[in-house]
Amino acid sequence: MVTIADYKGKVKPDWCPGCGNFAQLSAISAALVDLGIEPKDSVVVSGIGCSSNLPEFINLYGFHGLHGRSLPVASAIKWANSKLTVLAYGGDGDGFFEGTQHFYHTAKRNVDITYIVSDNQVFGLTTGQASPTSQLGMKTKSTPEGNIEKPLNPLTIALTAGATFVARAFSGDALNLREVIKKGITHKGFSFIDVFSPCVTYNKINTYDFFRQRVYKPVTDTKDFDKAYKLAQEWGDKIPIGVLYDVDEKTYEDYDPVISSAPLIDQPPIKLTAEALAEFL
């Protein structure tokens, strides 16, 4: 029986006290335990940022990659060994700035991985610059007169691109966060989970109290794209959390003629004669 202790990393997290990443680390570990998935059968891939240090703090296979590049690495791992439970994890700056193209195309391909974004609406690691999800008018180190860019909506991007599982959670609601992550992991296809994760050091606007006063769990048909898209656009006095969209469609792995037959690790090596190799070169 797998336990929480099995997922406890040897390195102590160095996030700021109160950071929402702690709740996400606990929720990811608990979700994997609830699903009976052992550390040897799971892997997490990250980019660069405060949240992207997570692979160092949890006991499973991990890959700490380049800024915004977690999704192509996670996709390659899944294609090489589809037996693994593959998670990609990072922040809003990592995923929605440097990683925008990868986000869109991985969703479009419906790769069977789970992408969790710790969305604190600011660049935390580089000490408080505006991120793609920072609110209009927000004063930061890079926008001292106020942010003049409209914030990006990651949920509508995921839906438009073709993600088959789209959800939002809040680090201040640990039980809901845990359940949403479990549903994302068990979903076959690209699962995107945007997690409100207050940065207690550099974002004094989008705080725990800010979200507690606004988040709610709507009762909705998760198969209805139009309703999901409408909910994804809600922002202000009411902000929906939970699973907004969840449909079953063929994945990239189902369509690919090579991967669909067997994971790459289970396929025989390609044998080339010296003559065939020379002709190829």
Number of discrete helical segments? 10
> Secondary-structure element sequence?
HEEHEHHEHEHEHEHEEHH
Q: Termini separation (Å)?
A: 51 Å
| Secondary structure category | alpha/beta
How would you explain this protein's 3D organization?
The chain has 10 helices and 9 strands. The chain has 281 residues and is an alpha/beta fold. It is globular, with a radius of gyration of 19 Å. The model has no long low-confidence stretch (mean pLDDT 95).
List the helices and strands and how they pair.
Layout (H helix, E strand, L loop, with lengths): L20 H14 L7 E5 L14 E4 L5 H11 L4 E7 H7 L1 H10 L4 E6 L34 H8 L3 E6 L3 H13 L4 E6 L11 H5 L2 E2 L8 H8 L6 E2 L1 E5 L5 H4 L18 H7 L1
Summarize the structure.
The protein is an alpha/beta fold.
Spell out the key features of this protein.
single chain; 281 residues; alpha/beta; 10 helices
